[in-house]
Automatic annotation (TrEMBL):
Residues 56-104 form a coiled coil. Pfam families: Troponin. It comes from the Eukaryota. The keyword Kinase does not apply. Troponin I is the inhibitory subunit of troponin, the thin filament regulatory complex which confers calcium-sensitivity to striated muscle actomyosin ATPase activity. InterPro entries: Troponin (IPR001978), Troponin_I (IPR050875), Troponin_sf (IPR038077). This is Troponin I, fast skeletal muscle. Keywords: Acetylation, Actin-binding, Coiled coil, Muscle protein. GO terms for molecular function: actin binding.
Amino acid sequence: PLQKKRRAATARRQHLKSAMLQLAVSEIEKETAAKEVEKQNYLAEHCPPLSLPGSMQELQELCKKLHAKIDSVDEERYDTEVKLQKTTKELEDLNQKLFDLRGKFKRPPLRRVRMSADAMLRALLGSKHKVNMDLRANLKQVKKEDTEKEKDLRDVGDWRKNIEEKSGMEGRKKMFEAGE
């Protein structure tokens, strides 16, 4: 039963596809026929049938008229092309403005690059880069002053010795005497 449903669905899909293709072909044929009729009407309207005169003089005049028409048509064609190029350029500019206003543009994928501050400044500023970004070189040298705690710690020395001195009655006696 499931395979029958699948076959029926596939057959229906193929039938619809072929029907759509036949419809599209007939529409294309109608369109080409309509274009051909339109072309014939345009030519009949704008290009009257050519009647060749018998004498040489009349023939030369006809040629001059045709050349004048060709020149005017060429000028029209050139003007139309220039207008088309101008409008195309305006359209592109407007599209670009619209694109910029929306602010939605595809950002390129960025890679992380390890770069020192000096290299970054050199890349941004080029040869103008004179500043050295080695911050430690610009620091002042400061001498460490001995604080009282550090002196006490130095005087104390080994802690085991200190503990032995203060242990027992002698240590208490020393602490008592020191307190006075």
